[in-house]
Amino acid sequence: MHAYRTHSCGALRASDAGQTVRLSGWVHRKRDHGGLLFLDLRDHYGLTQCVVAQGSPVFEAADRLRTESVITVTGEVVHREPGTVNPKLPTGEVELRVRELVLQSAAEVLPFQIAGEQEAPEELRLRYRFLDLRRERLQRNMILRAQIIQDIRERMIAAGFNEFQTPILTVSSPEGARDFLVPARLHPGKFYALPQAPQQYKQLTMVAGFDRYFQIAPCFRDEAGRADRTLMFYQLDVEMSFVTQEDVFTTMEPVLRGTFERFAEGRAVDAGPWIRIPYAEAMLKYGTDKPDLRNPLVIADVTAQFAGSGFGLFAKIAASGGVVRAIPAPGAAGNPRSFFDKMNEWAREQGAGGLGYITFDAEGPKGPIARNLEAARAEAIREACGLKPGDAVFFAAGKEADAAKLAGQARLKLGTDLGLSAKAGFRFCWITDFPFYELNEETGQIDFSHNPFSMPQGEMAALETKDPLTIPAFQYDVVCNGYEMASGAIRNHKAEIMVKAFGIAGYPPEAVEERFGGMLNAFRYGAPPHGGMAAGIDRIVMLLAEEPNLREVNLFPMNQQGEELMMGSPSAVEEPRLKELHIRTVMPPAKGAASPKAS
């Protein structure tokens, strides 16, 4: 007989009754039923009930066990009594009568309970992550993650992609966040950067003549932690040669949709092709470039209906170049005044002045705005929003970006509060035609808005003749249930366009050569048109697992302060090691201190 187990703790069935078996695992629960001691023994595969009778040579040893101790038990498989069968367990028809018990590893008193639904503070869970991971929910999440990655990998290979690995130690690149830097011991004063994405390398793979590349790539971004973003994450990284934007869509959509369909467990998944929404339209209709389409509400622009109207506040906003956005609220007119007051209070909590509103009944429009607005204008608003008697409409007004953001937030809140948003299922869309550039409000300079390596629509002619802020790029996102799940672009594969594009963003040619010389040099030796995308593995798992936080689908995550509490990372480094790396640390001054202290 094997030293530790003949079966897993999830394997035994009624057909095994009468066999002598050996199991190993963790003591999940203990129950003393007066003369009989029940031990639920758990391993990765399941749980088996073990029984130790009083008077057994191992009873005292079993009685002393703490939960989460690791033991090996040997005994006979027997049928449970009819009234004790547990139909919720695959092993629920049988139990193990223990004859031998070996303590493999004793557990100390637990910092929190593993069995049951009792929650523990996140900091404690992360500090004892190895215990937290023993819980059924997290075990299920990690197995789901592994299965999803395997499924994606199989689908990519079946679609003709080859899996390559790109360097982890690379050069700093403007990907939109701070780089993590690694000192180069052999090159004093120089640093490697951990890749924010394998962007340049995957493009160079296409220049090298490979046609379809992918990898499950680790990426690193030194930015503030959020529920849906971490310092390190994994993405499905993809690049293809000789493709248009449409080719990328038709190739990758079946891969992503197929994975969701496999793991949806009965939840609806949008059939293809997924709808395409231009960026400007998304910002108008949903107030965000990450719309949750489970919410049926669509925002309308009603600036023209208020321009020159009797409602002075909105008329003044329209006259000064602002906008007024209308958020429909079907069936809301019958709600008490307190409903509308709470919406206004909520808007003020978001930093806005409030939300105006109009209600409609059989007699027409009602409310403070309606009393000061011409009837024809109120009717035009009703038609623009598709409203009927019993409905209401809320308004967000101000600068376009501010009004769009507030309207988008109000749309989500109304969808939830009015019970209009579906809670299950997966709704997808492609967001297309992102602006190539944006204006940095702090500096007044033109910056790249999304991905600097994208091809501007119109190529060189657009860069030379158009207002940069009006140029769209061949950039696109996949959005699912309000989350950006993937992002991609058709790439700029021409050196002269790349130099021109970076020049508009304030990079002189010599700076472009210095920072991106490897890619520019490669482009000068014949580069194919190419494009691709990257899909967030962590977000895919988070969505399918219905978890609100990426930390629940990662084995050993950091907290929001970028600390890995279990191992104590980041940690201080001894002075001799710093000297070897030619580094001095300069600590920030303590409160009231005159200057930083170097060490």
UniProtKB/TrEMBL annotation:
EC number: 6.1.1.23
Molecular-function GO terms, alphabetical: aspartate-tRNA ligase activity
Cell location: Cytoplasm
NCBIfam families: aspS_bact, PRK00476.1
Keyword Aminoacyl-tRNA synthetase included in the entry's annotation: yes
Organism of origin: Siccirubricoccus soli
Name the record gives this protein: Aspartate--tRNA(Asp/Asn) ligase
Main enzyme class: ligase
Catalysed reaction, written as an equation: tRNA(Asx) + L-aspartate + ATP = L-aspartyl-tRNA(Asx) + AMP + diphosphate
Keyword Protein biosynthesis (UniProt): yes
Pfam families, sorted: GAD (PF02938), tRNA-synt_2 (PF00152), tRNA_anti-codon (PF01336)
